[in-house]
Amino acid sequence: MATRINKFLSEVGFCSRRVADRLIKEGKITVNGKIPEMGTKVEEGDQVEVEGQRIEKSKNQKNIYLAFNKPVGIVCTTDRKVELDNIIDYINYPTRIFPIGRLDKPSEGLIFLTNDGDIVNKILRAKNNHEKEYIVSVNRPINRDFIQAMSNGVEILETITKNCFVKQLGPKKFKIILTQGLNRQIRRMCESLGYRVESLKRIRIMNIKLDVPTGKYREFTKKELLEINELLEKSSKTFD
Q1: Of 21, 85, 89, 104, which is the active-site residue?
Q2: Which residues pair with 48 in a beta bridge?
């Protein structure tokens, strides 16, 4: 049965479909020695290579789902040539995995890693409105106006951010729950209001809370994986 290249690469645990599409555009993928077009399908027996590396599907591949507490200074990239402090080298997991989404280098906290490309696309699909919770500290005292402005939407990146839950936790600290993932969203929101983020920690994604020490990871429990799949199924039915 023929399969699109991006789906094939996600199913074998090489990368997400989004990354696969980028690799195709950059001409880093070949099928039977030829550079394919976007949407090209591969069949059993075709030779797929990424930058000269042969990619094959393992018959007994086990799906891996990790919850990792990313330290500050670690970069969420799978490209080991680009960054010395990349997340893949840091974890050094024995099987190929890749992060779901990202946390920027100065941020810390919860991030998922997996070899299941399909779950990556479902979680990252913006219209599914999956919650992500953060604890943030800024450089000067916040007030009711700041909380209200952050809650009601801030103009960044030529758009207005979605309404979100924001609660003050201290003179310079607040909690925020987002359902969208714009680039450096919280930092940009704060900057637009005249504040600078001094620390940012993600403590929850969907139903999974951060409960491991900095720099450590654990596997999803069976209950967590079941709950996540139920949430993904509901959101896909609602928004597709």
Answers
A1: 104
A2: 31, 55
**CA–CA dist 150, 169 (Å, integer):** 14
| Residue 104 annotated among the catalytic residues of the structure | yes
Q: What is the pLDDT of residues 55-91, one digit of tens each?
A: 877 666 788 999 999 999 999 887 766 666 889 899 9
The phi-psi region of residue 13 (left if phi > 0; otherwise alpha if psi is between -120 and 50; otherwise beta) is left
DSSP lists the bridge partners of residue 50 as 29, 53
Q: Whole-model pTM above 0.85?
A: no
Residue 10's identity, in one-letter code, is S
**Domains of the chain listed by start with CATH number:** 3-55 (3.10.290.10), 65-125+211-234 (3.30.70.580), 131-205 (3.30.70.1560)
* Res 175: pLDDT: 98
How is residue 131 annotated by DSSP? Answer: -
Is the pLDDT confidence value at 212 over 90? yes
Gap between the Cα atoms of 92 and 168, Å rounded: 37
